[in-house]
Amino acid sequence: MPGALAWSFTTPEEITLALAGVLTVVVALIGVRAWKASRITPEERERQRRAALVARGKMGDATLVEMRGDLLFYTYEVRGVEYTASQDVSGLKQYIPPDLSVLGPVGVRYDARNPANSIVLAEQWCGLRGGS
């Protein structure tokens, strides 16, 4: 019985199995490419986060403590807890007020459920003094 476990296929069956294998690989490749194309880029994810904070975030007062390159560093307090945060504004330069040269009070929008999630600038809102 050495050949009892061996499979024997006819030529049409071998061709059918080979085509089924190729089809499986092609469908898998198409699926992987579609999945990669549908993923959200980090820039889009950040834009959506800012938009959500503008739409549903609570407003508060903050203090702009430092501007270093494209980063704004600010502090604010929520329910007695002081938060220090930064925001990369490299993609929002056109929304920065031209007269922003002084550190000091700014507006902040934060998520009430996660106060560490905050912004001082977005496409639709500006917490920087002198901004629109």
Count every helix, treating DSSP H or I runs of 4 or more residues as helices: 2
Strand order of the largest sheet: 3-2-1-4-5
Low-pLDDT ranges: none
The topology string of helices and strands comes to HHEEEEE
Instruction: Count up the domains.
Output: 2
Look up the CATH topology of the largest domain.
OB fold (Dihydrolipoamide Acetyltransferase, E2P)
Structural class: alpha+beta
State the name of the first-level CATH class of the largest domain.
Mainly Beta
Share of residues in strands: 25-35%
* Largest sheet report: 5 strands, antiparallel
Query: How helical, in percent, are the residues?
Result: 25-40%
| CATH architectural type of the largest domain | Beta Barrel
Mean pLDDT: 89
Distance between the termini: 86 Å
Quaternary organisation of the protein chains: single chain
Write down the Rg.
28 Å
Please tell me what the overall shape is: elongated
List the helices and strands and how they pair.
Blueprint: H1 11-38, H2 42-56, E1 58-68, E2 71-78, E3 81-88, E4 104-111, E5 114-119
Antiparallel strand pairs: 1-2, 1-4, 2-3, 4-5
